[in-house]
């Protein structure tokens, strides 16, 4: 917990540094705006003093100055707003490309640790939530102290007595914050946890609403929900009360400064006070709200800081960007050059505590032959396939593709040699054409047609609303398991890689569909080096070597094709 | 917000006003909050007005006490604190009522069907929509109400500095507090969806990338997916850039108008353009103008929130008011539990092809049957029909001879229990997952159900036993263990009819077999309908129906 907090702090600091150049531009504009604020107050004070001391001739130029400065200040604040959001855009763009690189760098192994929706929300929502942090909190936290004390110094320069009062009131702010701040931090972290738990509960109950309704528990759950919603309110209010007290202390400091300055200044005024003295008194009064404005902006952005901590924790759950592996000479990538696969003494553990899931597995598969992987679930078949795919690197041992050590190949070189079909293909939001071309974006139209008919997709394409251009995936047309699997097969035909890895490709299909799919797969395996992982009796029609795994060990290995 | 806005967008006006109607029990608090807010604004005006007039009075040699100034100052602090506390509390009370109301509507209405169709993302968006509505009261209604009440008070003070300048400043205040925010609201209503769509497109691209990491690596196509994410991000950022420019300009315009108001007062005090006012009254009016105009400058920004809030309200109302497709009945529960489906035709929506056409099946009491059909053929709709989550277009479903349309929903569901791969496991303890709020079940009954589901031994070995927290969707359990907990929950219900809707899908082959074997023994004495895309051979069945293209094509047994 403590270590996590240090990491979060370091990360947040690094974020601040990375956006320093764009933030500092916003801060400089903010300082300019404070200086214009001083001129504005001076122009106002001068107008009033000239009237009160019956020198109305001095008023019009001062009013003119006030107008000019006001327009300039408004223009400045427009630029400041736009710059702040631009600097947030730049920061979020940088952060997102960093997260993207980390996700892609870790690759499929990440899916073993995190649900895809968590990964997606780290990439989208976590980053978007930092808008306020980059646009408001960073500039406000750099600006507030400087801006506040510029105003205090300006008041002191013109009016010592008022300057000292203002300085004392401003100096109490950090003291108040310290007194309430420590207590709030402790209280609110606890409250914050309880709050998130209750919010999660509501979401969870809504997601499971069918289960509740169908078990006849609607009324009971509604009552429980009403109770916890009320609990949420009470807890939220506890946190807010402390936050409000903290901001009330700002009010106390400001009002005290205002009242004290008015009273002390008006005591020293008479109807024969010179114009300049009166100007200085009014100047001090008018600047009181200005002195506290920057601190208010900071308090308003405090929640944005909390988002940064949450994002830091999500980022910490991702691996750092890996170094590219040494690039070796390219190897031929077409099916004409079949490749052999050799595994030597492979061992692998997902984590040290749970121990290895693959123990000393070795096999040799000559080019163009098939290896059938068997074994009960949890015996390490899928892990072995992930090792062959290069999704994870073996803890010990080596894998050779066509005689070349995989440890010396880049992920891209490995994937260029391999086609893979899993239990359920992931279909992306887009047309069927885009989903197939994914395997080879520069494929020609005849190549695409050939892949489609080889995968027997032309049997169902005409039945779809827009054929090959039908939109599928999120928000699109739903395909059956068999139809989806045919897209995966078409992808593999299109890619035409020398090695084919099949991970229980028919386990989610009904028997009739399974037979048809196996038929297409059989065609796909011709002339390729194949590793097939299967449970199905029908898949026994594939001939090849057999490797049986149990608890991560090879318990039988037949080199004879059977 | 205002009459003209409502007439232009009648649909959203009604959605928002209906939400405000739901808050009726809280009107007292909500209005009191508004009054405190107004008092806080007035004390702020008094404070600045007093500060100005006191200095002015001293300068022209009139003595004035400081009591009023001190009172204004301290009441300003207290009132602002109270305002924040009270309005937030009132808002959260209203919001928690809204949540409960929304939940009840979801449960009654088509939402049970929504949950059935597993659109979890839609539901979680709705939850955050409810959250968004706090802006409506705190950031739009309260400041707006305060502005409405401030206008006459402040105008009276301003009129003392001269009729014409007073009226002009009042008019500028009205523009700042009402006209400009309304313009901003209209803008946000128009452009708000841009950002929402861009955001959801980006989310889809990110989800594609995350769930397709294996495909991406296997095909060396990481760049393709990453580029889509980057492109969608550019679209979103362009929309955000436009939005922030609009915001900055609106704010700038508001700032200029506020300063113009101050300048008018200044001219009146100085006797430039206007007749010169009495100095003390004029300076007090000037200070009031500075404070009052400054306080409503932020309303234009709140106007830009309006689009977001009203879209959230639209979506909530859209789901909540989607009436239930099934009617409540009143007939008493029949004594027997034979199920007869007679000539049933059903489709989820009128524009889609029917899932069933003239389907006729009989499941006798105590019988075990399976309905087998290809994936995605809509077999699960049968469970929805039997549980009255959906109603058939044609034909009827009888339980023990009574049409289920005539039965009370909850009564029917106490007779027919449902277990599926989408049976939800709650982020709660095992005990609470089993009980689902029921209090009339003994500890022994819980353990008996766990025994039957063959999970009791596992639960016993857990350090916290029944009180073990199982995580989001049972993430701390293995897939098979989670399914067994869900099974134990169904067994607790004593329902004589069990619908097992693809109960083992998603489990690996061995776990699936073991789970199905457990199911063979738990149904003793109950009718069981198994819905699946294939049989593994371990199921004990009296009867098998094969289902294809909306028809039963063969039956065996």
Automatic annotation (TrEMBL), chain A:
Residue ranges constituting the ABC transmembrane type-1 domain according to the UniProt record: 25-307
Topology in membrane: Multi-pass membrane protein
Swiss-Prot/TrEMBL keywords: ATP-binding, Membrane, Nucleotide-binding, Transmembrane, Transmembrane helix
Domain ABC transporter: 341-561
Ranges annotated as spanning the membrane: 21-43, 63-84, 137-157, 163-187, 242-263
Subcellular location: Cell membrane
Classification via PROSITE patterns: ABC_TM1F, ABC_TRANSPORTER_1, ABC_TRANSPORTER_2
CDD domains given in the database record: ABC_6TM_AarD_CydD, ABCC_MRP_Like
Keyword Phosphoprotein recorded: no
First-listed, main subcellular location of the protein, grouped into a coarse class: membrane
Domain of life: Bacteria
SUPFAM superfamilies xref list: ABC transporter transmembrane region, P-loop containing nucleoside triphosphate hydrolases
Record has Nucleotidyltransferase as a keyword: no
GO molecular-function terms, A-Z: ATP binding
UniProt protein name: Transport ATP-binding protein CydD
UniProtKB/TrEMBL annotation, chain B:
Record-annotated membrane-spanning stretches: 27-49, 55-79, 136-158, 164-185, 248-274, 280-299
Domain ABC transmembrane type-1: 71-321
Name of the protein described by the UniProt record: Transport ATP-binding protein CydD
Transmembrane in keyword set: yes
Membrane association type: Multi-pass membrane protein
Domain ABC transporter: 339-556
Any one Gene Ontology molecular-function term assigned to this protein's record: ATP binding
SUPFAM superfamilies with a match to the protein in the record: ABC transporter transmembrane region, P-loop containing nucleoside triphosphate hydrolases
Record's subcellular location: Cell membrane
Key words, A-Z: ATP-binding, Membrane, Nucleotide-binding, Transmembrane, Transmembrane helix
Entry-linked NCBIfam families: CydC (TIGR02868)
Database matches in SMART domains: AAA
Statement: the UniProt record of this protein carries the keyword ATP-binding: yes
């Amino acid at each position: 917990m403590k270590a996590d907090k240090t990491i979060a702090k370091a990360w947040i600091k690094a974020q601040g540094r990375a956006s320093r150049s764009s933030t500092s531009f916003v801060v400089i504009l903010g300082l300019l705006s404070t200086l214009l604020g001083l001129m504005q107050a001076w122009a106002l004070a001068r107008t009033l003093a000239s009237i009160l001391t019956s020198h109305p001739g001095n008023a019009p130029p001062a009013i003119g100055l006030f107008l000019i400065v006001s327009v300039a200040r408004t223009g400045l604040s427009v630029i400041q707003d736009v710059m702040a959001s631009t600097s947030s855009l730049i920061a979020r763009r940088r952060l997102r490309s960093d997260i993207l690189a980390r996700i892609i760098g870790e690759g499929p192994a990440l899916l073993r640790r995190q649900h895809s929706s968590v990964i997606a929300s780290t990439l989208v929502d976590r980053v978007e939530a930092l808008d306020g942090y980059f646009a408001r909190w960073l500039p406000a936290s750099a600006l507030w102290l400087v801006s506040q004390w510029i105003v205090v110094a300006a008041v002191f320069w013109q009016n010592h007595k008022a300057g000292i009062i203002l300085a004392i009131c401003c100096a109490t702010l950090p003291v108040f914050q310290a007194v309430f701040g420590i207590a709030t931090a402790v209280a609110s972290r606890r409250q914050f946890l309880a709050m998130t738990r209750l919010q999660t509960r509501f979401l969870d109950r809504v997601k499971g609403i069918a289960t509740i309704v169908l078990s006849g528990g609607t009324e009971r759950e509604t009552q429980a929900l009403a109770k916890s919603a009320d609990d949420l309110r009470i807890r939220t209010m506890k946190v807010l009360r402390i936050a409000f007290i903290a901001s009330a202390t700002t009010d106390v400091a400001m009002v005290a400064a205002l009242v004290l300055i008015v009273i002390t200044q008006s005591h020293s005024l008479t109807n024969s006070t010179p114009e300049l003295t009166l100007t200085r008194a009014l100047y001090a009064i008018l600047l009181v709200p200005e002195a506290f404005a920057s601190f208010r902006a900071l308090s308003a952005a405090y929640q944005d800081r909390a988002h940064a901590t949450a994002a830091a924790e999500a980022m910490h759950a991702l691996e750092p960007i890996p170094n590219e592996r040494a690039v070796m000479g390219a190897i031929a990538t077409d099916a004409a050059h079949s490749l052999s696969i050799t595994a030597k003494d492979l061992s692998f553990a997902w984590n040290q505590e749970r121990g290895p899931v693959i123990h000393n597995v070795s096999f040799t598969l000559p080019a163009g032959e098939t290896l059938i992987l068997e074994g009960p679930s949890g015996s390490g078949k899928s892990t072995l396939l992930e090792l062959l795919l290069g999704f994870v690197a073996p803890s010990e041992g080596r894998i050779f593709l066509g005689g070349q050590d995989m440890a010396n190949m880049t992920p891209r070189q490995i994937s260029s040699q391999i086609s893979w079909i899993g239990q359920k293909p992931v279909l992306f939001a887009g047309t069927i054409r885009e989903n197939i071309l994914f395997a080879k974006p520069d494929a020609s139209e005849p190549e695409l047609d050939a892949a489609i008919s080889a995968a027997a997709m032309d049997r169902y394409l005409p039945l779809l609303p827009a054929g090959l251009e039908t939109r599928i995936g999120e928000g699109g047309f739903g395909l059956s398991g068999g139809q989806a699997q045919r897209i995966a097969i078409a992808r593999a035909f299109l890619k035409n890689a020398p090695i084919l890895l099949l991970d229980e490709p028919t386990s989610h299909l009904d028997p009739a569909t399974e037979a048809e799919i196996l038929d297409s797969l059989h065609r796909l395996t011709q002339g390729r080096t194949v590793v097939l992982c299967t449970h199905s009796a029908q898949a026994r029609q594939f001939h090849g070597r057999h490797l049986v795994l149990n608890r991560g060990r090879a318990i039988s290995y037949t080199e004879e094709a059977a | 917000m205002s009459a003209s806005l409502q007439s232009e967008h009648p649909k959203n006006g009604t959605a928002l006003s209906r939400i405000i109607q739901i808050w009726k029990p809280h009107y007292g608090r909500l209005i009191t909050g508004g009054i405190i807010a107004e008092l806080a604004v007035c004390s702020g005006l008094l404070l600045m007005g007093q500060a100005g007039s006191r200095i002015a009075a001293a300068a022209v040699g009139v003595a004035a006490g400081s009591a009023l100034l001190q009172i204004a100052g301290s009441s300003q602090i207290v009132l602002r604190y109270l305002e924040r506390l009270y309005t937030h509390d009132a808002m959260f009370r209203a919001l928690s009522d809204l949540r409960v109301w929304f939940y009840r509507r979801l449960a009654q209405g088509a939402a049970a069907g929504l949950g059935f169709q597993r659109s979890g993302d839609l539901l979680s968006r709705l939850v955050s929509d409810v959250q968004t509505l706090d802006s409506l009261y705190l950031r739009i209604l309260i400041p707006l109400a305060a502005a409405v009440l401030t206008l006459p008070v402040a105008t009276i003070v301003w009129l003392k500095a001269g009729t014409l300048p007073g009226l002009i400043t009042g008019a500028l205040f009205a523009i700042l507090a009402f006209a400009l925010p309304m313009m901003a609201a209209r803008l946000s209503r128009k452009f708000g969806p841009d950002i929402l769509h861009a955001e959801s497109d980006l989310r889809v691209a990110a989800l594609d990338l995350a769930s397709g990491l294996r495909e991406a690596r296997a095909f060396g196509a990481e760049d393709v997916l990453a580029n889509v994410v980057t492109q969608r991000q550019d679209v979103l950022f362009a929309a955000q850039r436009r939005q922030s420019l609009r915001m900055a300009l609106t704010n700038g315009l508001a700032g200029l108008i506020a300063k113009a108001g101050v300048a008018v007062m200044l001219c009146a005090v100085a006797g430039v353009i206007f007749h010169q006012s009495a100095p003390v009254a004029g300076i007090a009016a000037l200070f009031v103008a500075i404070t009052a105009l400054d306080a409503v400058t932020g309303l234009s920004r709140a106007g830009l929130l309006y689009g977001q809030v009203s879209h959230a309200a639209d979506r909530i109302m859209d789901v909540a008011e989607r009436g239930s497709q099934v009617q409540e009945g009143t007939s008493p529960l029949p004594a027997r539990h034979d199920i007869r489906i007679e000539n049933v035709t059903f489709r989820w929506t009128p524009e889609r092809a029917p899932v069933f056409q003239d389907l006729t099946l009989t499941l006798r009491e105590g019988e075990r049957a399976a309905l087998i059909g290809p994936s995605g053929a809509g077999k699960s709709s049968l469970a929805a029909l039997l549980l009255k989550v959906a109603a058939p277009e044609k034909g009827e479903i009888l339980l023990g001879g009574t049409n289920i349309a005539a039965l009370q929903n909850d009564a029917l569901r106490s007779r027919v229990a449902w277990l599926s791969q989408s049976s939800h496991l709650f982020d709660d303890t095992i005990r609470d997952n089993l009980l689902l709020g029921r209090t009339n079940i003994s500890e022994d009954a819980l353990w008996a159900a766990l025994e039957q589901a063959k999970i009791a031994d596992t639960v016993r070995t857990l350090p916290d036993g029944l009180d073990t927290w199982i995580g989001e969707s049972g993430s701390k359990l293995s897939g098979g263990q989670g399914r067994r907990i869900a099974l134990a929950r169904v067994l607790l219900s004593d329902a004589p009819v069990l619908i097992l809707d693809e109960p083992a899908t998603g489990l690996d082959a061995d776990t699936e077999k073991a789970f199905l074997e457990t199911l063979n023994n738990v149904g003793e004495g109950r009718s069981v309908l198994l819905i699946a895309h294939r049989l593994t051979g371990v199921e004990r069945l009296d009867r098998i129906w094969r289902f294809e293209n909306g028809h039963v094509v063969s039956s065996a047994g």
